[in-house]
Amino acid sequence: MLSKKYIFRLIPIDYKAMKKLLFLFVSFILASCVFTEEVTFNSDQSGQLSIGFDGSEFMKMMGGMNADQEEKTVKKVDSLVVFSDILEASKDSIARLPLKEQEELMKLKPYSLRIQMDESADLMKFEMLTDFEQIEDVSDAFKTFSKSSVFGDQRTKGAPIITNDGVEIKYSFKGNRFERQARIKDAALFNKALDSLKDAAMILSASTYKMKYNFPVKVKSVSYEGASLSSDLKSVSIEVNFQDLTTNPERYNFTVILEQ
User: Fold this and answer.
1) What is the pLDDT along the chain (260 residues), one digit of tens a residue?
2) Which residue of 47, 81, 86, 254 pairs with 113 in a disulfide if CB–CB is 3.0 to 4.6 A?
3) Is residue 130, in this structure, part of any structural domain at all?
4) Residue 179, domain extent
5) How many CA atoms lie within 13 A of 148 on its CB side?
6) pLDDT digits (tens, 9 = 90+) for 203-246
């Protein structure tokens, strides 16, 4: 179950609407310029993963474009989409899909998507959420979404694939040692994915990737030189350029050692 702080109006949504919503979610990374990954651990190393996009700048830009409109209906949304409910309601339709597509869709089952929109405040935020028993279970979480068949063919719709099949990202939390490791497992696939992102290079180079890891005890050391610690020494924050993270994923591997 998600934490009690995530209780909102649930959106009545069907399978087709889910496809459009997820495609929109992935596409906003190119407009938002801010991508966040946050992990909060409990004392038993279970916890919650949050992957978010802040599209407030996009909302502000769109508001400026519509400023000359005399009448404008202000929209406010604060809702939670629970994918397990959608998959259950659409199980008959999903059963008719090819087996590979069914398997991809079922990977979405543990996740929920929070949507916040308020045109009057130039607010637009999307946040994927899931609980986990062990962090290894949610490695490459964003790839689960962006590579899922629910998006259809992103390239034909104008949104480049922003994950890289040539890269493998793994988390590990053993004892008092936490690691985030990216590895280029297939150079050919890695370079092919980079080629597909050339048209978006200018936008990605101006984008930021923020990582935050919250632990139940104090941090003793962090191997990444640019990391910062919270005042209580229990949180590690790392902020990097998204373009550089995409082209040099192994550069941002790091290890966190906790106090025992």
Assistant:
1) 444 344 344 444 555 555 555 555 555 545 546 788 999 999 999 999 998 877 776 666 655 555 555 555 657 888 888 889 988 988 898 899 899 888 878 888 888 888 888 878 888 788 889 999 999 988 767 666 555 444 444 333 433 345 566 888 899 999 999 999 999 998 998 888 888 777 767 767 778 889 999 999 999 999 999 999 999 999 999 999 888 888 899 999 999 999 98
2) 81
3) yes
4) 9-258
5) 24
6) 677 788 899 999 999 999 999 999 999 999 999 999 998 888 88
Question: Does some domain include residue 36?
Answer: yes
The answer to whether 146 touches 160, Cβ cutoff 8 Å, is no
User: Does 3 reside within a domain?
Assistant: no
The answer as to whether 2 is a domain residue is: no
- Rounded to 5 degrees, φ, ψ at 249 are -60, -35
| Domains in the chain, number | 1
The answer to whether residues 231 and 254 touch, using CB atoms and an 8 Å cutoff, is: no
Q: Are 113 and 126 in contact (CB under 8 A)?
A: yes
Residue given tokens 């998204």 in the structure block: 242
